[in-house]
Amino acid sequence: MMLRAARAFTQRDTIIRFAGSYHGTGDEVVDPKAAGVPKWVEESVLVVPQGDLDALKDALREHGNRVAAVLIDLMPNRAGLNPATREFVQELRALTRRYGVLLAIDEVISFRLSWGGFHQHYGVEPDLISTGKIIGGGFPVGAVGGKAGFLREFDPARAGAVMWGGTFSANPVTMVAGLTALRLFDQDAISALNAKGESMRGDLEAAGVRVNGFGSLLRIMTSDTKALWWSLYERGVLAGSNGLLALSTAMNDKHLSHVIEAVAEGARNVGDTGTPEQ
Q1: For 20, 56, 116, 268, which has the most beta carbons within 10 A of its beta carbon?
Q2: Could you say which of 127, 133, 224, 272 is catalytic?
Q3: Which is catalytic among the residues 73, 106, 203, 224?
Q4: SS3 190
Q5: Contact 47/30 with Cβ under 8 angstroms?
C-alpha cells in the first residue's frame, strides 16, 4: 500500500529497492524470477546492491524521471542485520529529493529502535514509512505513515483515491493494544532497552560470538543456524530462525544473563568458524 501511494502521488511506475532486503511477499518486493511473479515486475522494479551509492546514482541518473520511490530497510534482517551507514542514508535522502522521488522506509522491524522510528537515528525525514509488529501490542498489525500530502492518496473523499480496506482493517482490539504498547514504550523505555541490547552485544562479542545489529535487535552470525537455534531452544531461548534476538522490556537482568550464557554455550557447541550463514 505504501508503494501504491507513492505511485499514485508521483504518477510514476518504477520502484527502486535493495538486494537482500525482505519487505513481504508482494510482487514488487520479491525476486522477479520467483514462481508466480508476472514479467512486468522486472520492468517496473530496479534492484541495486545495499549500500552501493554508485549503483543507486546510476539507476537514478538513467531512470529517475520514472521512479516513484526508493524503498529501503535501514537494517535488513535477512541481509545480516547490518545498519546502513549515516553517510549513505543522508546521501540517499538528498538524491531522492533531487529527482523528485519519494523515500519510503520499511520500519516494520526497526521502528522500535528510536522514538518515531529508526530513521531518526540517521537524521533524515522519509516521505513514507511502513510499520507493524510493535505498534500492534502483540496482535497482527500493519500501517503506513507519512506526511498528509502523501497520505491524502488514501482519502476516500477524493476522486480517484487509492482504495484501502479489508476484513481486519482498524481492528479495535489491535488498535487499543497497540496504542497501550506505544504509550508504555516511551523514550526512556526505548533508551533503556537499547542500552541492554548494546551491553548484551558487547558481552557476546567478548565471549567470541559474532553478532550484528543495533540497540535491542541482535543477530547471531553463525556457520550453522539450525544447530544454534536448537541449542538455544533447548536452553529456553527462542531466537528467530536466522539467529535474530529481539529484546523485550519484560526481560530483567537475570533473563539477559541467561540468554548470554545460552548463546555463548550454543556457539561453542556449534563450533563456529566465524563464517556467517546469510
Answers
A1: 56
A2: 133
A3: 106
A4: helix
A5: no
Domain boundaries 2-182, corresponding CATH code: 3.40.640.10
Nearest to 210 by CA among 202, 197, 221: 221
Residue with grid cell 542485520, as numbered in its chain: 81
- Residues 194, 174: contact at Cβ < 8 Å? no
| Structural domain spans, the chain | 2-182, 187-270
106 is catalytic: yes
CA atoms within 13 A on the CB side of 115: 10
Low-confidence ranges of the chain (pLDDT < 50): 273-278
First to last CA, the chain: 28
Q: Cα angle at 112 between 76 and 81, to 5 degrees?
A: 20
Whether 33 is catalytic is no
Q: What is the pLDDT of residue 222?
A: 92
The answer to whether the CB of 68 falls within 8 A of the CB of 3 is: yes
Residue 265: CB atoms within 10 Å: 14
Closest CA to 46 of 88, 235, 36, 61: 61
Instruction: Give Cα separations from 215 to 30, 86, 89, 248 (angstroms).
Output: 28, 16, 18, 11
Determine the residue type at 181.
Answer: A
pLDDT score for 42: 85
| Residue 214: strand pairing partners | 217
Concerning whether 254 is annotated as a catalytic residue, the answer is no
Pull the grid cell for residue 105.
522506509
Query: Which architecture does CATH list for 187-270?
Result: Alpha-Beta Complex (3.90)
Answering whether pTM is above 0.85, one says yes
Return the pLDDT at 248: 96
**C-alpha cell belonging to residue 268:** 561453542
Taking the C-alpha atoms of residue 10 and residue 150, their distance in angstroms, rounded to an integer, is: 9
